[in-house]
């Protein structure tokens, strides 16, 4: 058998390992995103309520949405806009995770196996996991930033309708084209800096924590590489990711949701640091943790669904465990 024929006879994951891992992680992420998306919508609505910069720039006080908790916000969306509105913006969110999760998972494994490398005992030192997680998250989020921008802006359409404002978008394609026409290519990457910062922090919590906890359990406890170990590691990663990522998520959401001029420049905030300062000065430090409960309640099940699905898909397709 010639080398070419021998290569063709290999299973798909062995012929194209990175492409296969990209596809598997994208599938797992799409499942997790659809299951937990209503919590993401609730979190986004909570994060823009009471935005101080909006009121300083002339928004009518009568249009301010009262502060509500997670459950009341979700119930209000169902009562005022309809049940299906809990999935408003889900399409660009799935697009985003196909790109984001696919790139970050492939990048992390490449960094772990080829760039930084494991120790002689096959362990991956914690500091290397931190560097790998933050780098992989930043790379994945940069590529996925345009889809994240569309997702955030479409999630706010229901709120605009209730405030009597005209809707900005008719769908995902229209949103992409309108943002492109108004702000150019630069407009599609509006808010990419806080977006990447948040992704780096979240993945330091998610990828780093999952990888470190999983292999710690395998090396130091009687647990084996099964769904129980994956569940424990994913619960830990979801909590750490929420604690580290919520402040950056608040800043990212506000920058991406602000109105823009024809050059794609924001009218409320000059930069992510300016948004951070205005938010703390106008609303207090704890405003950076607006939406923390739904963020955590979303990240925990998202992480659980994603990692369990991803590990099982890898096993079924003959790919080694993460």
UniProtKB/TrEMBL annotation:
<dbReference type="InterPro" id="IPR018108">
    <property type="entry name" value="MCP_transmembrane"/>
</dbReference>
<dbReference type="InterPro" id="IPR023395">
    <property type="entry name" value="MCP_dom_sf"/>
</dbReference>
<keyword id="KW-0812">Transmembrane</keyword>
<dbReference type="Pfam" id="PF00153">
    <property type="entry name" value="Mito_carr"/>
</dbReference>
<feature type="repeat" description="Solcar">
    <location>
        <begin position="225"/>
        <end position="316"/>
    </location>
</feature>
<dbReference type="GO" id="GO:0005743">
    <property type="term" value="C:mitochondrial inner membrane"/>
</dbReference>
<feature type="repeat" description="Solcar">
    <location>
        <begin position="124"/>
        <end position="216"/>
    </location>
</feature>
<keyword id="KW-0999">Mitochondrion inner membrane</keyword>
<keyword id="KW-0677">Repeat</keyword>
<protein>
    <recommendedName>
        <fullName>Mitochondrial uncoupling protein 4</fullName>
    </recommendedName>
</protein>
<keyword id="KW-1133">Transmembrane helix</keyword>
<dbReference type="InterPro" id="IPR050391">
    <property type="entry name" value="Mito_Metabolite_Transporter"/>
</dbReference>
<comment type="similarity">
    <text>Belongs to the mitochondrial carrier (TC 2.A.29) family.</text>
</comment>
<keyword id="KW-0813">Transport</keyword>
<comment type="function">
    <text>Facilitates proton transport across the inner mitochondrial membrane and may dissipate excessive proton gradient associated with oxidative and metabolic stress at neuronal synapses. Regulates glutamate-induced proton conductance in astrocytes, shifting the energy metabolism toward aerobic glycolysis and lactate transfer to neurons for ATP synthesis. Can transport chloride ions with lower efficiency. The transport mechanism remains to be elucidated.</text>
</comment>
<keyword id="KW-0472">Membrane</keyword>
<comment type="subunit">
    <text>Homotetramer.</text>
</comment>
<keyword id="KW-0496">Mitochondrion</keyword>
<feature type="repeat" description="Solcar">
    <location>
        <begin position="20"/>
        <end position="114"/>
    </location>
</feature>
């Amino acid at each position: 058998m010639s080398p070419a024929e021998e290569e063709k006879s290999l299973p798909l994951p062995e012929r194209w390992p990175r492409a296969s891992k990209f596809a598997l992680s994208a599938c797992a992420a799409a499942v997790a995103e659809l299951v937990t998306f209503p919590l993401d919508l609730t979190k986004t609505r909570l994060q823009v309520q009471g935005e101080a910069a909006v009121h300083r720039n002339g928004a009518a006080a009568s249009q301010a949405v009262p502060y509500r908790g997670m459950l009341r916000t979700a119930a209000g969306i169902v009562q005022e806009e309809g049940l299906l509105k809990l999935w408003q913006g889900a399409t660009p969110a799935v697009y985003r995770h196909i790109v984001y999760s696919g790139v970050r998972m492939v990048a992390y494994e490449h960094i772990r196996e080829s760039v930084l490398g494991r120790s002689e005992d096959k362990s991956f030192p914690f500091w290397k996991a931190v560097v790998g997680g933050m780098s992989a998250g930043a790379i994945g989020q940069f590529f996925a930033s345009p889809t994240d921008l569309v997702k955030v802006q479409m999630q706010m359409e229901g709120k605009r309708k209730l405030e009597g404002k005209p809707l900005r978008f008719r769908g995902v394609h229209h949103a992409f084209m309108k943002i492109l026409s108004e702000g150019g290519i630069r407009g599609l990457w509006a808010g990419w800096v806080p977006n990447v910062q948040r992704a780096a922090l979240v993945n330091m919590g998610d990828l780093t924590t999952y990888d470190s906890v999983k292999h710690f359990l395998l090396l130091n406890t009687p647990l084996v590489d099964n769904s129980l170990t994956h569940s424990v590691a994913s619960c830990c990663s979801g909590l750490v990711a929420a604690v580290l990522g919520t402040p950056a998520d608040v800043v990212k959401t506000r920058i991406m949701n602000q109105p823009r001029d024809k050059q794609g420049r924001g009218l409320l905030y000059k930069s992510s640091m300016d948004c951070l300062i205005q938010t703390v000065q106008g609303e207090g430090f704890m405003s950076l943790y607006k939406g923390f409960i739904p963020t955590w309640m979303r990240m925990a099940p998202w992480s659980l669904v994603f990692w369990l699905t991803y590990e099982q898909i890898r096993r079924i397709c003959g790919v080694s465990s993460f």
